[in-house]
Design brief:
174 residues; alpha+beta; 5 helices; globular
């Protein structure tokens, strides 16, 4: 009986770990991104990443930018190519502050996205995102926290407002 119970626990743990392919990992290079994209009046693609050290790395209309695919994934190579097109803003988030908000990522990843609501036209879209990493595939999963602009949608997780307020504060501090 004891052997069956131990085997059952082991198999349950094994399958639960396999199911969680994307996690917050010490191997990942980026945790958050804010972007503004507008293709109505010429291509505009501006924003910044917050990396694993708390650095704010900005970009403005880089050529050859890698956007997440239909599964909201980016390979590690694509992330590295994007980071090579970024410029440090000279501002850094403290490790304690960064960790506080990184701790929300797994919860946000489990949240559902609200249906998009049309709010206008030709405004573009500001997006707030976070990332999980898969050590097994060396790829990133982009999780939408909130989209504002022509179409608006948000993650229905309870921590969405808190993280978006923080990201907006970071933006205003630049």
């Amino acid at each position: 009986m004891k052997t069956i119970l131990i085997t059952l626990i082991f198999v349950t743990l094994l399958f639960s770990e396999c199911a969680k392919d994307y996690v917050v990992s010490e191997d990942q290079k980026i945790f958050f991104q804010i972007s503004y994209v507008n293709f109505a009046w010429g291509a505009t693609n501006n924003g910044f990443f917050i990396d694993d050290k708390g650095n704010i790395l900005s970009y403005s209309n880089p050529s050859g930018w890698n956007f997440p695919d239909n599964n909201r994934e980016l390979s590690e190579t694509e992330v590295n190519e994007n980071l090579a097109k970024c410029v440090p803003k000279g501002k850094k988030i403290s490790s304690g502050e960064l960790q506080k908000y990184v701790n929300y990522i797994d919860n946000l990843a489990s949240g559902k996205l609200s249906p998009g609501v049309n709010r206008g036209a030709d405004m573009g879209a500001s997006g707030y995102y976070c990332f999980q990493y898969s050590p097994a595939t060396s790829s990133y999963k982009c999780i939408t926290i909130k989209i504002e602009g022509d179409w608006e949608s948000e993650n229905l997780n309870y921590s969405t407002d808190r993280v978006v307020r923080w990201l907006k504060d970071v933006t205003h501090g630049l």
